[in-house]
Amino acid sequence: MMNFSFPVRVYYEDTDSGGVVYYANYLKFMERARTEYLRQLGFEQDQLIEQENIIFAVKSVNVNYHLPAKFNQLLDVSAHVTQFKKASLLFEQKIVKQQDQTLLCSGSILIASLNAKSFKPCAIPQSLRDAHEH
Q: Which of 37, 44, 92, 99 could be cross-linked to 79 through a Cys-Cys bond (beta carbons 3.0 to 4.6 Å apart)?
């Protein structure tokens, strides 16, 4: 199973009045990393909708905030699949400062595979399973 990391710079718009990243924006950074993980495997989410009739939706999130990220910092956001089930993926994700790898945020995000029309659970395509395993 592949470890994946995606670089993110903290922009002014990402911060709150205290000059630190607003808590919800860590989830956005994690979302970007999961999207880029799929892209690296050769899967675009819009194509999955059109060709496979599936969408991925967040089912649950458990996030721990360790230290604040601040304006203009460079971060690395990891996305590691720890469980690959028939209709779901469990990602373990971390956000660290690029400079010294200090852990800022960590989380477990459960992603459900859903039929794009009915929004009912459906199997993850075998082609995605195969790409993940290699």
A: 37
Helices 23-41, 126-133: axis angle to 10 degrees equals 90
* pLDDT number for residue 2: 64
| Selection from 43, 55, 34 nearest residue 107 by Cα | 34
pLDDT value for 133? 84
User: In the chain, which stretches have pLDDT less than 50?
Assistant: 1
Q: Write down the pLDDT at residue 10.
A: 97
Indicate the pTM of the whole model: 0.93
Residues acting as catalytic residues: 16
90 by Cβ neighbours in 10 Å (0-12 / 13-18 / 19+) ranks as middle
CATH of domain 3-133: 3.10.129.10
Q: How far apart are CA 133 and CA 131, in angstroms?
A: 6
- Domain locations along the chain: 3-133
